Amino acid sequence: MEPLLQVKNLCAYFFMGSSILKAVDGVSFEIQPGQIVGLVGESGCGKTTAIQCVLRLLPSPGRIVEGEIWFDDKDLLTLSPEEMRQIRGRHISVVLQDAMAALNPVIPVGEQVADIRLAHTTDSNRAAWEKAVELMGKTGIPRAIERARYHAHEFSGGMQQRIVIATALACNPELIIADEPTTGLDVTIQEQILSLLLKAREQMGSAILYISHDFATVVSICDRIIIMYAGEVVESAPTKEILTNPMHPYTEGLINSIPPLGGTPMEFLPAIPGLPPNPVDLPPGCRFAPRCAHAKEECLAQRPQLVARTPGHYVRCFSYKEEMN
User: Where are the domains of the chain?
Assistant: First the structure.
């Protein structure tokens, strides 16, 4: 099966005077149709920059300096701005973490959902409005006919996020990018938002790229997980494989940080020592080596490549590369 989205050796740097911030540095991954893929890592590892590149919305002074981004047999980096506008919203939609910032405060929310239909389909104004009300109802907005005329500030944070999801689903997109969509919401609302995304995959066949630093949540919904660290992919594998056979020390640290369910309570969770490197001054070797208990001289001097340890399981680590030979 051909991938729906394929990112190849993507490099996106921010040029700030004499300094170069390597936010995304040689990232490659793919998403199959209908697949849910999690993109995981600490804040500042390059997750959001990677999706800004996919959407061609990388802010200045950022620039894509290398790589390819293929979506449904189209190289997104070669499309004109108008062609990209036809992709965004219609074929690729986004659910952002700050719903209030994503919604226009002066336009009724129903109009904002309807506008997506008007921009990308042949719907009349009436048909687009009726579809907007229908989507708001399906995403759990009570009294949708009435509340479609409300403004964003008249809804709670959880309801605002439901409206953003209704907007994202307006044109039955092939790919939904969800960037920390449950941040700041209480646990019950988080579960409801995740259920809405899973229902979208079930009913429309949409693939989902789910970006988060919450490893436990990603594990619960994703088919495959991509681990990023300091602008690189350090491990990528099916979710079950990641959990049962992690091959990178950073991945092991993330798994160990998940609070256990049941059993004897733990006084504290194991933490990964140290901090990620400064993206303007990256170490010459493995970027995780300064925090890694297993680092060797080779790790400090040479940058490891992302290699296949087993079919579908990729890791960027000298130790596991040596075991293959």
Answer: 1-91+174-193+203-259, 99-172
Handedness of CA 178, 180, 182, 184 (dihedral sign): negative
Range with lowest mean pLDDT among 82-86, 118-122, 271-275: 271-275
Tokens read off for 263: 């059993």
Look up residue 46 and give its two tokens.
């390059």
Q: Architecture of 1-91+174-193+203-259 per CATH? A: 3-Layer(aba) Sandwich (3.40)
Q: What is the pLDDT of residues 205-232, one digit of tens each?
A: 999 999 988 888 899 899 999 999 999 9
CB 28 within 8 A of CB 51: no
Quick check: 179 and 211 in contact, CB under 8 A? yes
- Residue 19 φ/ψ, nearest 5 degrees: -105, 145
Identify the band that residue 143 occupies on the pLDDT scale cut at 50, 70 and 90.
very high
Q: Give the C-alpha separation, 175 to 36, whole Å.
A: 10
pLDDT at position 188 is: 85
Tell me the backbone φ, ψ of residue 31, rounded to 5 degrees: -130, 130
Name the nearest CA neighbour of 254 among 284, 223, 283, 226. 226
Helices and strands (H and E) in the chain: how many: 13, 12
